[in-house]
Amino acid sequence: MLNVENVTMKFGGLSAVSQLTLDIGKNEVVGLIGPNGAGKTTVFNMLTGIYTPTEGEIKYNDKVINGIKPHKISSMGIARTFQNIRLFSSLTVGDNVRISHTNKTDYNLAEALLRLPRFFKAEAALDEKVHSLLALFNLYEKREEKARNLSYGEQRRLEIVRALATDPKLLLLDEPAAGMNPAETHDLMNLIGRLRDEFDVSILLIEHDMKLVMGICDRINVLNFGKKIASGNPYEIRNNEEVIKAYLGEKGGEGTAKNA
Ligand SMILES: Nc1ncnc2c1ncn2[C@@H]1O[C@H](COP(=O)(O)OP(=O)(O)OP(=O)(O)O)[C@@H](O)[C@H]1O
């Protein structure tokens, strides 16, 4: 589904990402981990069209997407959440999700203004979709609440719902468990597993909570100073000497990594 081939991103003299190669298959959950400043978010910014790589190619379903505008990439089926939550804080929970779906509504302006049947049918279908997504993420009861009144963990879940409302095939999650308590993180782990199965999405996950990463990822890629230093399954990564030294620490895979 996604092939990142020898991709480099330079900012002036700094190579934030160097010669990165990374693949994601259909329905895979792939981890992208590494110390602060390793280049993980820069990878997301390249995949979503915010940055155009300095070198290399990013292919999505065999089509090169380097340099394509973010909104176009979103409509191709790549969605993301942000490390710093970016909700519309004064809108309701429900409207935050509806907004993400607006480019997919199945009626035109005239049909909306004249309140034609297609408008009502599409709106009812949208309501149903928004409500079932919110229910899955345990946010249905909060649908009329302003986003800013949600707890931190709820806001993180709402970000994921909003990304899902665009019907992605590839979902990029940037530290979804940041600020969550252990119980919320555990629930999130189950939810991510359900997303893969029920929404037929592939997931690329940036996360410092190693319990979550090791518990959910099929494969993990490790970045350090912009370079990939390891890739493999959770067992291989947990036991990789270079990864332990650069990131995991001696208790690799227990809780939060030492350099997070
Ligand atoms: N727009 C930019 N201009 C200049 N330097 C940048 C820019 N974006 C990122 N960088 C630099 O690139 C490097 C990688 O940053 P990035 O945010 O991708 O790391 P990260 O692995 O996501 O870190 P964290 O875990 O802290 O989120 C850092 O040195 C950062 O300062």
Automatic annotation (TrEMBL):
One of its GO terms (biological process) is L-valine import across plasma membrane. Gene3D superfamilies: P-loop containing nucleotide triphosphate hydrolases. It holds the Pfam family ABC_tran. It comes from Youngiibacter fragilis 232.1. This is Branched-chain amino acid ABC transporter ATP-binding protein. InterPro entries: AAA+_ATPase, ABC_AA/LPS_Transport, ABC_transporter-like_ATP-bd, ABC_transporter-like_CS, BCA_ABC_TP_C, P-loop_NTPase. PROSITE patterns: ABC_TRANSPORTER_1, ABC_TRANSPORTER_2. It comes from the Bacteria. Keywords: ATP-binding, Nucleotide-binding, Transport. Residues 2-250 form the ABC transporter domain. One of its GO terms (cellular component) is plasma membrane. GO terms for molecular function: ATP binding; ATP hydrolysis activity; L-isoleucine transmembrane transporter activity; L-phenylalanine transmembrane transporter activity; L-valine transmembrane transporter activity.
